[in-house]
Every structure is written in structure tokens, then in C-alpha cells.
Amino acid sequence: MAGASFSVFGADIRITGDVVAAADLHVDGRIEGDVACTNLVQGEASEIVGAISATSARLAGTVRGTVTAGHLVVLKSARILGDVHYDALTVEQGAQLEGRLAPRAAGEDAPVLTLAS
């Protein structure tokens, strides 16, 4: 894709504030704020405290906030504390989810599954 880019926030990076990127984003550090990007890859030791909105996301660290993604992969090392909205969802055995899971296209009255770690 012309003009596509990739940004990496290393383990030594701590951001306070919202992150909006038209690029793919790899986060190994800590973000205290909302994250909006095309594709998100989160490292195992990273933490995001805020809402995530992405076309696709692969989460391996800790998230404290709402996650909204078209295609979402939650790896076994992930810990999500918040509601999750998705089009397609894959959860590895061992992942910790504490919140409601609901397809993005579901209406407000659609049943949701509540999981606790």
C-alpha cells in the first residue's frame, strides 16, 4: 500500500495522552490515553490504559479500557480489563478477560458474555 507506515513505541517509552495514527503501530511501552490506529500489535510487557480502536489488533500485554477492533487476537499473555467489541475474535487459552464481549454489529439488546479472571 502506497504511503503505509509502521511506528514502534519501545519498552522505554511512556506516553501520557491519546495516540492517533494512520499507520500500523507496535507498542512495547506504556500508554495512558486512547489509541486509534489501523493495525495494533501490543507486546507482552506493555500496558495501555485507555480505549483502543483499530481495524485489527493483536494484544499480548495489559489493557485497562474498552477495545474495539474488526479482527481481534488476544494472546495467552494478555490481560484485558474492559469491554471488548469485535467483528472477528480469537482468544488463546490462558488469556485473561474481565469485561463484556460483544460483536460490533450487535444491537444494544444483544446478549453479552461476562468473563472474570
Give a quick rundown of the structure.
The chain has 117 residues and is mostly beta strands.
Explain this structure.
- With 117 residues, this protein is an all-beta fold.
- The protein is built from no helices and 14 strands.
- The chain has strands spanning 6-9, 14-16, 19-20, 24-27, 30-32, 35-42, 47-49, 52-59, 62-64, 67-74, 79-81, 84-91, 96-103, 113-115.
- Strands 1, 2, 3, 4, 5, 6, 7, 8, 9, 10, 11, 12, 13 and 14 form a 14-stranded mixed beta sheet that branches.
- The chain is globular and about 30 Å long.
For the termini, the CA-CA separation is: 40 Å
- What do the pLDDT scores average to? 88
**Major sheet characteristics:** 14 strands, mixed
Could you give the count of β-strands? Answer: 14
- Portion in strands: over 45%
The percentage helix is under 10%
Count of DSSP helices? 0
Shape: globular
Radius of gyration in whole Å, from Cα? 14 Å
Helix and strand sequence: EEEEEEEEEEEEEE
Query: Helix- and strand-based class?
Result: mainly beta
Low-pLDDT residue spans: 107-117
